[in-house]
């Protein structure tokens, strides 16, 4: 393999952390290749963004488009359509393998793969997936206009979903296992004030049922099993980090990649930014900032590696 076959930096991921990293690395004077199965990430599942600096009110997909447009203002090589399945290191060169078997080589890698929706793992969940059970209220909520639906989860994702669905469905039930709603206080206040939203506290979904389509769910309320008739149920219990991508990284009990304050993993030249790592809260502004930091640090590392070859 010749030096010409080795890229400077490969960024794995297609959302805010990855695109921010790519922009800052290119501006630092190195070549960047972004490998992603798709662009946008979790923000594509967000109805409205009101807490990202500079945008008082913008839809998630629209903001994701703006991030991509911004990245494309720079000379970034794009390899889109395939997931990365493995990242290895041979001497000082990284090998990044895609699911189609193609292998790319680089001096440095940034993992910015974000997370994917968590599942409940209860009876009927798989059977009624896409038949009433869903994981994205913004994506599928309009299908249930004027109907009765449930949101499973009272955290950040759950309260956002309930607020969105309150303008579409006739009735929205929110099942909160802890009994407490979490998230931005402004969203919690709106959910608790909406007349067509009812919060079922200390309620745990145990089973989904129906004939061909979802007809309802059973939930445990303080040890008593109860029934709730709904045509749609949205499981909004957060995300699981997409961290099972390399043996070169160490993860926490929650499967997040361990990094230091500079976004470095335990492997020289390998960084992780955004929701996939164990630093900071999972917010868009944090992911973008971490992408900036990882991009700058990776660029400095690449320059040092290449100067040692001359």
UniProtKB/TrEMBL annotation:
Molecular function terms, GO-annotated: thioredoxin-disulfide reductase (NADPH) activity
Q: Which domain of life is it from?
A: Archaea
**Pfam families, per database record:** Pyr_redox_2
User: Which Enzyme Commission number(s) are on file for it?
Assistant: 1.8.1.9
Q: Where is the FAD/NAD(P)-binding domain?
A: 8-291
- List the protein's name: Thioredoxin reductase (NADPH)
Stored Gene3D superfamilies: FAD/NAD(P)-binding domain
Origin species, per record, is: Candidatus Nanohalobium constans
Give TM segment ranges.
Answer: none
User: InterPro entries recorded for this chain?
Assistant: FAD/NAD-bd_sf, FAD/NAD-binding_dom, Ferredoxin-NADP_redctase_2
The record's keywords, sorted A to Z, are: Flavoprotein, Oxidoreductase
């Amino acid at each position: 393999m010749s030096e010409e076959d080795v890229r400077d930096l490969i960024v794995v991921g297609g959302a805010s952390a990855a695109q921010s990293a790519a922009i800052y690395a290119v501006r630092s004077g190195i070549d960047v290749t972004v490998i992603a199965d798709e662009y946008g990430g979790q923000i594509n599942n967000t109805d409205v963004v009101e807490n990202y600096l500079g945008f008082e009110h913008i839809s998630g997909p629209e903001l994701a488009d703006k991030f991509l447009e911004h990245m494309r203002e720079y000379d970034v090589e794009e390899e889109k359509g395939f997931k990365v399945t493995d990242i290895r290191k041979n001497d000082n060169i990284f090998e990044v393998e895609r699911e189609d078997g193609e292998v790319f080589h680089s001096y440095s890698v940034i993992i910015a793969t974000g997370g994917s929706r968590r599942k409940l793992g209860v009876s009927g969940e798989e059977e009624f997936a896409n038949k009433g059970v869903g994981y994205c209220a913004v994506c599928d909520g309009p299908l249930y206009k004027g109907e009765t639906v449930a949101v499973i989860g009272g955290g950040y994702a759950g309260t956002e979903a309930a607020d969105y669905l309150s303008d579409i469905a006739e009735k929205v039930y929110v099942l909160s296992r802890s009994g407490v709603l979490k998230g931005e206080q402004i969203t919690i206040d709106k959910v608790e004030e909406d007349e067509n939203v009812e919060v079922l506290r200390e309620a745990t979904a145990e089973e989904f049922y129906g004939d061909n389509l979802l007809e309802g769910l059973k939930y445990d309320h303080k040890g008593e099993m109860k029934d709730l008739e709904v045509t749609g149920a949205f499981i909004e219990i957060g995300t699981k980090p997409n961290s099972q991508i390399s043996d070169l990284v160490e993860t926490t009990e929650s499967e997040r990649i361990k990094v230091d304050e500079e976004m470095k993993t335990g492997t020289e030249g390998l960084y992780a930014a955004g929701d996939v790592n164990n630093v900071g809260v999972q917010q868009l502004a944090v992911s973008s900032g971490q992408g900036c930091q990882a991009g700058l640090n990776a660029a400095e590392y690449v320059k040092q590696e290449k100067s040692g070859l001359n």
